[in-house]
Amino acid sequence: MSGPPPGPGAGRAMSVGNGPPSAGLPPHNGMPPQQNAVPPPPAGSTGPQSQQNLNQIVLEYLSKKGYVRTEAMLRKESEPITTNGSAFPSQSSDQGGAKATKAFELLRKYMDDILDVYKPELRKLLWPVFVYSYLDLVREYFTKDAEAFFAKYRNLFELDHSEDVKKLSAATLPVHLTERLPKVYLDNKYRVTMTLMPFYNLIQFLESKIFEGGQALIDVVRDHLNIVTVDRATTAEKSIAAILASGQNEDELPAEDEGIPGHNPGHPLTSRHDPEADASRIRLTLGPYPQDQDLQDDVRAALQEEDAKNAPRPGQPSLVDEYDARIKREPTEDAPSRDMVPLPPSLARDVSMEVQKVVEHRDRYRLEPTRTGGVGPGVSVTMYTFHNTYDSINCLDFSGDNKLVAAGMAESYIRVWSMDGSALPSPTDSSQPSSSRRLIGHSGPIYAVAFSPSTVNPDPTGPPTSPQYLLSASEDKTVRLWSLDTYTCLVAYRGHDNPIWDLAWGPYGHYFLTGSNDRTARLWATDHIEPLRIYVGHENDVDCVAFHPNNLYVFTGSCDKTVRMWHTAGGNCLRLFTGHTGNVTALSCSPDGRTLASADDAGNIILWHLESGRRKKRMRGHAKGGIWSLSWSVESTVLVSCGADQTVRVWDVLLETGEGGKPGEGKTEGALATKGGAGRWSGVRRGGEGGRGHSG
């Protein structure tokens, strides 16, 4: 192959462009003219032309040897430079929507052709590449192209990112990029975790397709993504077996190791969410809260007295034996200390409640859904209908002794009913007692009510175990504590800046938790008018709150689609659970303290393993519209949920993959493949029209 003629004549080197000024290099002595020999420039010729010829020689050599990456870099550096230092785009290169479409199609085709073992990891790139390609088009004033690009590919992401797709579709002009959601994406790099092999293969592929969309993808990766590479050998989750399993049982939710902190689904263990609390290093204390020695002695004495009155049946353990086996256990590594969250001294009421809990634990019917396969007598269910409410009930709560029910009304008052129809007298009210009471004090709709902890008391001569107080939260930014002896307001707690959506009592009373529109959750004690702790971290409303059974941790769910686990006393965030594709609407921690259930308005229920911070499985069955209540069985094996689709569903949370339900026993659509989990609902009960306050 002969080199280009000297002088300004057109040649292949001219398509590369002029390089930086140089004196040029003469051909090697003895090189025949047929082997790319370039004659020295004639007198009067300029240095740049010689540099062109040199660049061409090097490019052809690199191409012949297969050094694709180095060749592409040299071509890029050899492009003409403008006055502001940027390279002139090639006249034949695509711009605007054509460039973005070509790049996105290139990425999709690559993912279709790649080995199946790498597809789950690489598919995590589709969403961020789509978002940033669209936002770049909008920012560069390619308005029509941006709309066409968005309309063409939005259906790929409607399932997992429906809210973001809806909001991004409204950002059609550069001025719209200052809105919250586009700004979140543009101000942060989207994190993606990948193993080394698929990452290197991807980069090599993009560099080999520089002029076919690869450069545009490289620009997006460089400017907007934070790809963290890990060695597959360092983590069992990235093993070949795990990846193959995830490919065979692909989760429909976005991958865990991705996203922007506090926004899109991301890994629950990464310290990027909370620099002060690396969940992979913080060991939780999930054991039961220890009883003080005085309470143990009093409970044991009361149980011995009860055993003397009512001897156990043959084969049935005594109450003292049941107490020793269940409650009075040897200290374990995950048992909390009593001084972590101090409680007031125990009273006779507390002793009576503990005795009743032991009796119920021994005599209760154990709900084991897989024992008979759904065949046999059903569990009795009591249902109540509230007439003539005119859609004014925002929330409901039943007392622990099953004698009272309270409803929070949109008309700013609370109605308390006696469930057995008995009168509710008050020493401060001389009027004729009735079976209901009306509590007036709030100046806005009531969004949450909660009775203080209580138990059934079969012995009317003993200390009362009925609820003493009722809490209510309202749009008026206050929480009120009501006495159930006098049915009057005792305290109004003020501190939140906006309406309060939800509240929850601690498992032992005394403490309670609130969540508000001001994006905070607050811990209160009944004997303090100001909050003891303020939990700050959510980017949107805190819609639901819950306590851990040992009182040491609290949970908050938010419209930012995340769930956070906080240390009650320390106030720091210990876990961030991300994976919901809708607003989190309900939370409930299992009685054994090991699993958290969270639900969203997209119809998903996700179970989280608290110790590891990882998702155990996802259960689907409810329609979109919101799941407003979750409740566990005592054994932590069954979960009950109710939603806006007018159904109540009973879930077997222990069901593993491959144990599909029988015909008529609906089941969930997949779960986290690496955990082998799946769920199914065991029954559906339909009620009246669904509606929602912010608690219920």
TrEMBL record:
One of its GO terms (molecular function) is RNA polymerase II general transcription initiation factor activity. Residues 97-225 form the TFIID subunit TAF5 NTD2 domain. Its main location: nucleus. The keyword Nucleus applies. Residues 249-259 have a biased composition (Acidic residues). Residues 1-50, 76-96, 249-275, 657-696 are annotated as: Disordered. It comes from the Eukaryota. Residues 80-95 have a biased composition (Polar residues). Keywords: Nucleus, Repeat, Transcription, Transcription regulation, WD repeat. It holds the Pfam family TFIID_NTD2. Residues 686-696 have a biased composition (Basic and acidic residues). WD repeats lie at residues 386-420, 439-492, 493-524, 535-576, 577-618, 627-653. GO terms for cellular component: transcription factor TFIID complex. GO terms for biological process: transcription initiation at RNA polymerase II promoter. Belongs to the WD repeat TAF5 family. This is TFIID subunit TAF5 NTD2 domain-containing protein. The lineage of its organism: Eukaryota, Fungi, Dikarya, Ascomycota, Pezizomycotina.
